[in-house]
């Protein structure tokens, strides 16, 4: 069935463009809330298409496909940031309620626009510059020192589109490509950070907002592998300032739905803790997967409530600590035996799988564990994830 | 799509016969676990059919439809107890893994068989008798006193098929009907009980079992309206004996999946607390809905794990108390405005709706609230449910 079947009682249909795991993880909460979900999927076996009755196949760059899909929905939201601005504008022009709206989403789609806007709001950011030429890169390198970080302003995720470079010439090819699209490159100083944090919150069109506790995200080779909720030992004042900055960004940019603000925790010259913003994402985010089992309201339920302009749920955690560990694909495609083992070893581990083919390094699931002893939870979460990946075998 | 699309990695397909809310509430956990769900639904707009991609329409008494449905599944389980034994036997004969198996399920399908079997196990039951004639009823009335409780052995639920009678003649019509089917009637003494309790547990084909804490169920006009988890002030010894009886029943009867044992809490002649078994259900049960939000592993996830013979999850509660209140249909079919109000009034209330048309008295959803103050939680849960029903308007 490609047309969503509406539930009785006046309940709306939420359309999600993109059939990845973020759309998939909305399916359970949508069923509980009684709202209908429809997904514009990349393929009939996309992660979300496996669990949602209405999953027409179509591409997010195909304006007609997106418009046709949206015509059966009351609200349209997104699994990713890759819907082109011109498609978004057509959606809005056709009268569809789009959350987040294009004028907010562009700051998650375009990292140069984001840097400019956050700077204007006085939100702490690394020093940055736009580069179109090798001379621009060299000038910025002289200003902030080498190595520096170069990013393609659009389309990157999970470390793709990000490079650490020690000489301008390393960017010759990227600059050439950027010249053809006219997008330029974003250069940033390399931040000497203590650790990475994330502020996760949701905001509704009415302006209600709710933030989960600030978490620590642990990255390995540019991919988030572990999230500790809340961030252990976080300075309470820093936490309050980070949440305040997240709420201000959400309000000023008019974000609707879930907003993730990725931060670097830094020290100022006097050794006092501070932060700079690394990235924004305007959708449920890997740094919030812990909330599915660790909070009264998980991020996927909250995203649905927010885009429907329903009152938001409590983000209160259930337990002192929840640890999330990502399951990355390993070499062995038959996951089920490892999954049995993980469940048998630890009856408190919550295993979430995305119905995706195993490919080395691909995010295919995650696990959550909640409790009172952080070190114990980390050991268990990472062991379960590594066992599913095939990194450990006992 | 009526054929379930299998997820990669060796993950199985679970088929559920019956598309009611119990099947629906398996959808979220199935998506999280990565297993595929398929539902044999009564209609295209059945509660579960609204949220599961594979939901062929067919009737549970239609052997061919059930066999065809089952041929695409690795395991078959049930939304209700109404699949006829001859259909179940055909399923087993065709090589399908059926959980619970027919030889266990018959004790939930036939209350006379259940009474006989539990009596044989020494599990405390009310005094009971089979009646085929008015004389049988009169004799039992003389033995246990009037009024007494009469039950049709098959097909009853939510108070249907149960009558309290003060004279044998009130059962004339029921006896006549029972004579044509040869099923007889079950007569039971009316138990003078303190309150109703329920033991909920899951057992896997390998014999692993896990029980949630014993709960109190509050009934109104024969329908469960509220569940308090755990049962407040329950004598620890009584709790242990009740769970032990539940585990013994599950083991001796070979139950697989979730088993609910409904109990009356009674006092013996010396005033000491005891219990007698009222009913058995071999499927997720209304008395376990609290576990969806109140425990590490909810009953729907646990039922899937059990019927798949996966290791069971922890039944540990998240909070000191969780209160569940059923949402019954009221007079107003447009539920959505009330739902917004309930969410705005209490951000901690978890609202679960079943996508069903509102009909007066019909179970159309439930709410859960967890926390530390039982009286406060009861007030909030019942208010939210009553507001959704339309019983209260502010």
TrEMBL record, chains A, B:
GO MF annotations, alphabetized: 5-(carboxyamino)imidazole ribonucleotide synthase activity; ATP binding; metal ion binding; phosphoribosylaminoimidazole carboxylase activity
Pathway: Purine metabolism; IMP biosynthesis via de novo pathway; 5-amino-1-(5-phospho-D-ribosyl)imidazole-4-carboxylate from 5-amino-1-(5-phospho-D-ribosyl)imidazole (N5-CAIR route): step 1/2
Catalysed reaction equations from the record: 5-amino-1-(5-phospho-beta-D-ribosyl)imidazole + hydrogencarbonate + ATP = 5-carboxyamino-1-(5-phospho-D-ribosyl)imidazole + ADP + phosphate + 2 H(+)
Protein's job: Catalyzes the ATP-dependent conversion of 5-aminoimidazole ribonucleotide (AIR) and HCO(3)(-) to N5-carboxyaminoimidazole ribonucleotide (N5-CAIR). Catalyzes the ATP-dependent conversion of 5-aminoimidazole ribonucleotide (AIR) and HCO(3)- to N5-carboxyaminoimidazole ribonucleotide (N5-CAIR).
Enzyme class of the recorded protein, top EC level: ligase
One biological process term in Gene Ontology: 'de novo' IMP biosynthetic process
Protein name (Swiss-Prot/TrEMBL): N5-carboxyaminoimidazole ribonucleotide synthase
Gene Ontology CC: cytosol
Domain of life: Bacteria
UniProt xrefs under InterPro entries: ATP-grasp, ATP-grasp_carboxylate-amine, ATP_grasp_subdomain_1, PreATP-grasp_dom_sf, PurK, PurK_C, PurT/PurK_preATP-grasp, Rudment_hybrid_motif
Name of the gene this protein is made from: purK
Enzyme Commission number(s) from the entry: 6.3.4.18
Pfam families: ATP-grasp, PurK_C, RS_preATP-grasp-like
Domain called ATP-grasp: residue spans: 115-308
Annotated binding of ATP, by residue: 111, 151, 188-191, 196, 278-279
PROSITE patterns given in the database record: ATP_GRASP
Key words, A-Z: ATP-binding, Ligase, Nucleotide-binding, Purine biosynthesis
Species name: Phycicoccus endophyticus
Keyword match Mitochondrion: no
Family membership: Belongs to the PurK/PurT family.
Subunit structure, as described in the record: Homodimer.
